[in-house]
Amino acid sequence: MTDVLRRGRASLAFGFLAQGVAFALLVTRIPAVQDRYGVSDALLPVFLAAVPVLAGIGSVTTEQLVKRVRPSVVLRWSQPVVLLALLGVGAGERMVELAVSLAVFGLAVGALDASMNMLGVSLQRSYGRSIMLSFHAAYSLGGIVGASLAWVGAHWHLALWVSYLPVAAVLLPAVLVGSRWYVDAGPAEPGVQGSGGGGEGGALVFKLLLPLCLVMSFAYIGDSTVSNWSAKYLQDVLGSSEQLATVPYNVYMVTTLLGRAIGDFGVRRLGAVAVVRGGAVVAAAGFAVVAVAPGPWVGMLGFTLLGLGLCVLVPQTFAAAGRLFPGASDAAIARLNIFNYVGFLVGSPLVGALGDAWSYRGAMLVPMVLVSLTLVYARSFARQPDRYGGGHERPRTADVGRGSNGL
């Protein structure tokens, strides 16, 4: 393993961590943002929905950009834009300034998420073994750091710009310096046509990518359910105190970090298919425990299981897209990344609507069923396309994609 690859891996991991910090600082201070700009409860969902919609547009745009420039270039310049947009959210005074800042944040996040995972998949290919979960573990660690900083800001009643400015001042130059060591490993088989836009080839690509798109959506529906409803569920349904109701999401974040920190070892030993199946079973069990929990502590156990189960699905979905389309992995990842935002947009309103119309216990069964459907598509995580774009199963020990250079 060369020093170039090691530095590339370390710098990309730091990029994931920085993004986790920035995103957590935004989403955990939404009430403060609402108060600063006087955003009504009726208008707030519009602002919140606009961010993932624009992020999807940013991801689609990135697919076209990487045909002309390297993914590392897109990542190098989108990450500072995200940090500056975050600072704009904290420093603005008028609602139009908030709208512009959130729009820029959304577009840049889409480009950032897509290019970041493109580099992660190409680095994994060069390493010849699973390392994708380690990048997402860095993101989870960044989320914990960002949420902790947000708690400090809220506890001390700091203005948003006071909370955001030191973070931007530290991370912005750090990510620019770190971007010097990003590694673009390139496609494994340039001859494979993985990005056909229409006709028979395009239909074949969509057929191969669709299972991964569904799994990505299911995973983010589950994730958004935890992030948006865990506190309310524990307090209103299971009768916990207000303080205890804040614990499940923190536990979920910590178990997500732990699961991702060790997940690559599981993939190397057991293969991606087994890890994805195991994650889906554990996540479904977590939702089942939450749905039938007699009290808050059992509910807490369910949310703990959810962190351990859901944490492996998204990284392995990106990695599987890279294996399915080794000659066009960038395009596949950009398209797959859109379903990250689809799941985010669908999950929270779906559970809320079902909870109001039926019951929140019953609503928890819906993400349970959706996550369970991952078992149906698990074999897609072991496929390797042939020279005509089709797929066949690879041996379990070769489950991690390898580049044509044999590293």
Describe the fold and architecture.
The chain contains 16 helices and two strands. The protein has helices at 3-27, 30-37, 44-65, 71-91, 95-127, 132-155, 160-178, 199-237, 242-245, 247-270, 272-292, 296-310, 313-324, 329-357, 360-363, 365-372, and strands at residues 383-385, 391-393. A two-stranded antiparallel sheet has the order 1-2. Strand 1 (383-385) and strand 2 form a beta hairpin. Helix 3 packs across helix 5 (95-127).
- The helix fraction, in percent, is over 70%
Q: What is the count of helical runs?
A: 16
CATH level-1 class of the largest domain: Mainly Alpha
Give start-end ranges of low-pLDDT stretches: 189-204, 385-407
CATH architect. name of the largest domain: Up-down Bundle
* Major β-sheet profile: 2 strands, antiparallel
- Mean pLDDT over the full residue set: 87
How much of the residues is beta strand, in percent? under 5%
Give the overall shape.
Answer: globular
Q: From the alpha carbons, calculate the radius of gyration and give it in angstroms.
A: 20 Å
Helix and strand succession? HHHHHHHHHHHHHHHHEE
Kindly, what is the distance between the CA atoms of the first and last residues, rounded to a whole number of angstroms?
Answer: 8 Å
How many domains? 2
